[in-house]
Give the backbone structure.
Amino acid sequence: MSTFIIAEIGINHNGDLKTTKRLIKEAASAGCHAAKFQKRTVEDVYTKEELDKPRESPWGTTNREQKCGLEFEKEEYDEIDRYCKELGMDWFASAWDTKAQEFLQQYDLKYNKIASALLTHVELLEMVAKEGKHTFISTGMSTMDEIRTAVEVFRRAGCPFELMHCNSTYPMKNEDANLRVMETLRNEFSCQVGYSGHETGRVVSVAAVALGASSLERHITLDRTMYGSDQAASLEVGELKKLVEDVRTVSLCLGSAEKVVHESEVPIKDKLRKY
């Protein structure tokens, strides 16, 4: 299977380590290559005015309590790191600020991720590119010029990367997928292009793989009705397993570009061509 499959746990763990470990285990069992999270320094990412706004959540009545309730710190990430190693599963995270990226540097991660929302955060891009790790760059909400600027940062640093076509609505309507942009990005930037999906089903993701997606990222959850802004755009674990099977089937079906007569066709050819 050539497509690199990323199980985006993100903040769907709802601050619960037990839920997190179940999601990691299910992703590994399904055949995903990596689990992905999100890391924020809450006080840096959001203004005080935003954090003080009222918001009912399982953690309290303000935005601050909700954001902090969803945020894992070192103790939790130490256990995530240990558990992923136990399962032979890679993990990484998208940092939403430079302090968060510094936090992630303490772990021996193979990959970095630039979230669509951070594609124009040049300081963060330069910090990530300097690490020289393979970086997945999501392109939702971005113009070609904005993508071009980000690509130049990584090329100047000699940092390997791939773009991920993305539409940043949650959930995304299938008709908004615009998957042909993947080819546009490949032609424009001469790089691998993956797909980060926020749709509810599997069809768009499978189509992206058929169109040559080098990587595929989908949010996952134990239950789409759980609390959280990303849950509705996520796959439950049963659907995740089906998606991985679909990707394997598509990869098998694509074959090579060489026209050949398959061994299975020879007896048919001998029978039908004799006339």
